[in-house]
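[User] I have long wanted to understand how a fold can be written as tokens. Those tokens are not coordinates but codes from a learned vocabulary of shapes. Could you go through the record with me and say what the backbone is doing? Thank you; the sequence and its tokens follow:
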Amino acid sequence: MDAPLATLDPSLIAKFAAIVGEGHALTGAADIAPYVTERRGLWPGCTGLVLRPGSTAEVSRILRLASETRTPVVPQGGNTGLVGGQMPDRTGREIVLSLSRMDRIREIDPLSNTITAEAGVVLEKLHEAADGVGRHFPLTLASQGSCQIGGNLSSNAGGTGVLAYGNARELCLGVEVVLPTGEVLDDLRKLKKDNTGYDLKNLFVGAEGTLGVITAAVMKLFPKPKGKEMAWAGMASPQHALRLFELASDRAGASLTAFELIGATPLSFARKHAPHAAQPLQGDWPWNVLMEISSGRSAEDARSLVEDILAAALEAEIIGDATIAASIAQGVSFWKLRETISEVQKLEGGSIKHDISVPTSSIPDFIARGDAAVASVCPNARVVCFGHMGDGNLHYNVSQPVGADTGEYMALYRKMNKAVHDVVRSLNGSISAEHGIGQLKRDELLATAPAVGIDLMRRIKAAFDPACIMNPGKVI
């Protein structure tokens, strides 16, 4: 790790360390390194101090001291973010506040279908806790073995279950938040109906740590499905995928719990770099759909539903081929193939990524116009299109041409972003569907969002964080 450009005053470090104990105040370069390195390698950071509090009271004392001394604080969960929202800057003045020690599940209430968890609880651990009482927590991400629920809420994470269950914001009933002043908002209520004034929790969910630090949350649980089926279908075009989605939605309703679109290019990358991954269909199709049907009634009901949908789609020539997972293990292998795509894309060189959403009905139009926009910037670039078609969110990534110089290609980042995002905005879509704004999209948000909206966000920021210490340089 490079030395910071500035250093924190040793006496100030000592004051912060006294709050958490010296063993949880990291100052050595080797100890700090994991907290200032993120998976995409785009936003290397520097800090002289990482604090790992073990309680809400300690977080409160840290933020109170930070406000008094005007010390910037960068909250961090599992460090799995993709837009640089969890990274300190290069000045060395910002301290990192890691919530990883706050990993206690405070309560599980199966009758109310809620679980109350601290911010540092790893998402997979929350899944396991819910499963242990016969319940289902539907937020599902490729990084669930390391991401933490506080970070999931701060970024309003999405994932593959949004179609049926909603994103992190819709799964959250209440929060405990430490404000920059050190005050604690205890709003850990389990109520599904509550119209007593402003819904304050939703100011913090999706705010990326710019207004305060979420230290705990009440999340919704659901009954475990009694039957679940995974199917993989091949088809000729996104228009055919949209017709399949309409058919599946009509016949399955809320039982359609996932609908993932996968183009031929990302699938070819997976086959090339992960040859042992599942190969659901024998032939190659321009487009593929991974569909999940869940039934609250029975396994037989789920099977009947998926068979009915695929039979009707084949008869209507919406799809050309399909298969249903023959076992739970094969269904898991379908999902692993889908999740492999992000990782194997790195092996194809430089990638310019877009996390966009448009109305589901506009997805075929977006793909056609997006492909043309990409070609106008870099004619031989390879579009890697996949994602959560059921909720309108696509990961529309663009890999460098074969044999191209990576540095020269990545120099096109802003130009490519603008071309693709112009198409998104023309369809009334969003340039950030589930990854957040962070550093990556901050300038574009400020340049393109409605002026009144930006002004309102700045007013909220000033009201909550008058000392301007919370995650500076992110979002706004």
Summary: The two ends are 28 Å apart (CA to CA). Residues 328-345 form the longest helix (18 residues). The first strand starts at residue 25 and ends at 26.
